[in-house]
Design goal:
The protein is built from nine helices and 15 strands. The protein is an alpha/beta fold and 266 residues long. A six-stranded mixed sheet has the order 3-6-9-12-14-15. Strand 14 and strand 15 (166-169) form a beta hairpin. The longest helix is centred in the last third of the chain and has 30 residues, at 202-231.
Length: 266
């Protein structure tokens, strides 16, 4: 029991840079209080002391704003950051090293008894306001974006966003040659496509990926054309690809353009 408590405290330091010392964490973190009280209420529930378990759960809810049914199964090093408004249902199962943010609901979609709440694998992160509904499985290492509504199984390592939740990147996609080539070309032109496609909504990410693929083909074709011209005996200068940075605007030139209505000489 005390080993679990030490693990719960330590995992706060691993995932919250604002944590300063163990005393502060133990006395001021409602997410930790909710987890510790749930471990007590879950023991009561397993011992058949149902009312006492529910009373302990209700007390934890009043104290922390986090509602965890005593029947829910929670693994080791579970962390609830901020925590207000989190709801975890009776038949929910949570693996090790899972992180939930405030406003998360692990809920059911039926009034029938039996398994009706989600199962989260190890190392899952669920963003603020997300709703995971029904007896579905969230694979190990999956990421659920803020305010997403998930009603279908999520494979391991996938990232899910939107309403209804849709996969914007899977662990398999990250390892394909197509993805590696796209990432390498984006790095070459000074653009972080990997971070964008992982975090942005699906239509935007798809549009950016298509644009990168198009530019890559155009770049390859241009190089082939230059090489063919050189084989005919013509020399072409090797030009360095310019960096993509903030554009610097010459204010004086812009003012002159507005007066004359045309281009100004350099």
């Amino acid at each position: 029991m005390f080993g679990r408590i030490r693990e719960d405290i330590k995992c706060v330091f691993d995932r919250d840079p604002a944590a300063r010392n163990s005393f502060e964490v133990l006395t001021t973190y409602p997410g930790l209080h909710a987890v510790l009280l749930h471990r007590v209420s879950h023991c009561y529930w397993n011992w058949g002391l149902k009312w006492l378990a529910r009373f302990t759960s209700a007390f934890a809810r009043m104290l922390t704003g986090i509602e965890i049914h005593p029947g829910a199964t929670i693994g080791r090093r579970f962390f609830i950051d901020h925590g207000m408004g989190v709801v975890i249902g009776e038949t929910a199962e949570i693996g090790d090293d899972v992180t939930l943010y405030h406003g998360v609901t692990l809920g059911g979609t039926t009034w029938q008894k039996g398994k009706r709440h989600p199962t989260l694998g190890n190392d899952v992160v669920v963003g603020a306001g997300a709703k995971v509904l029904g007896p579905l499985n969230i694979g190990e290492g999956a990421r659920i974006g803020s305010n997403a509504v998930v009603v279908k199984d999520v494979p391991a390592g996938a990232t899910v966003v939107g309403i209804p939740g849709r996969i914007v990147q899977s662990a398999r996609d990250k390892n394909t040659e197509h993805h590696k080539r796209r990432k390498a070309f984006a790095t070459k032109i000074g653009f972080d496509a990997y971070g964008t496609s992982a975090d942005m909504p699906d239509p935007v990410a798809n549009a950016i990926d298509a644009l990168l693929d198009h530019v890559h083909v155009m770049d390859t074709q241009m190089r082939n054309m230059c090489q063919a011209i050189k084989t005919l005996g013509m020399e072409l200068p090797d030009l360095k690809l310019p960096d993509l940075g903030p554009c610097e605007i010459n204010i004086d030139n812009e003012k002159e353009k507005s007066k004359t209505g045309g281009e100004t000489a350099d």
